[in-house]
User: Which sequence fits this backbone?
């Protein structure tokens, strides 16, 4: 089945997905075509291997962690609705966004935070920060430099002195960054 034959009405849960994600009908259709292209054996859902076919995630230093978000709660596959919902966090922001929207700043921050907080205790520990920094800048610096950068990053963000970064501290520390623009993927444009 080629892209030409994909009719919008054939997309499962299309209305719900549009409401949940804020994607337009055209965007949902485009994502669905992408989903189908990744779903090589046409089972209607994607495995981790399938998602590794997204070039932008394959080259992203924390791409594996992003891919894991599609497979929470021990699931081994992701259906189209989950696929669209996760990708909605990367939808570029155009114009005013309601705070409940999946691509609001708060929602994007929560998404980013969980990529760090792998044990889900609500805090980024020093060790968790080190892991992410190693993935992002690892090969360009020595272990010693990496330890220093980690200490500095944690200290700068850690306001209550527990040597970990809470969500509030995280949000505060990236206050000046343009998260809305940074967290967007070309695949959605
Ligand atoms: Ca943690
Ligand atoms: Ca803290």
Assistant:
């Amino acid at each position: 089945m080629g892209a030409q034959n994909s009719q919008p009405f054939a997309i499962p849960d299309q209305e719900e997905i549009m409401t949940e994600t804020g994607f337009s009908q055209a965007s949902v259709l485009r994502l669905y075509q992408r989903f189908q292209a990744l779903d090589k054996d046409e089972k209607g859902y994607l495995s981790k291997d399938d998602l590794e076919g997204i070039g932008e995630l394959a080259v992203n230093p924390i791409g594996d962690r992003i891919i894991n978000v599609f497979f929470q709660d021990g699931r081994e596959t992701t259906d189209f609705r989950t696929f669209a919902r996760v990708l909605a966090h990367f939808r570029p922001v155009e114009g005013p966004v309601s705070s409940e929207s999946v691509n609001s700043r708060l929602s994007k921050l929560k998404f980013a935070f969980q990529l760090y907080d792998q044990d889900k205790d609500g805090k980024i520990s020093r060790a968790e920060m080190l892991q992410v920094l190693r993935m992002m800048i690892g090969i360009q610096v020595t272990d010693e430099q990496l330890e220093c950068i980690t200490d500095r990053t944690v200290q700068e963000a850690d306001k209550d002195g527990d040597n970990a970064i809470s969500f509030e501290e995280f949000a505060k520390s990236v206050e000046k960054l343009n998260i809305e623009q940074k967290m967007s993927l070309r695949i959605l444009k």
Summary: The chain has two domains: 13-88, 100-183. Residues 97 and 104 are 6 Å apart (CA to CA).
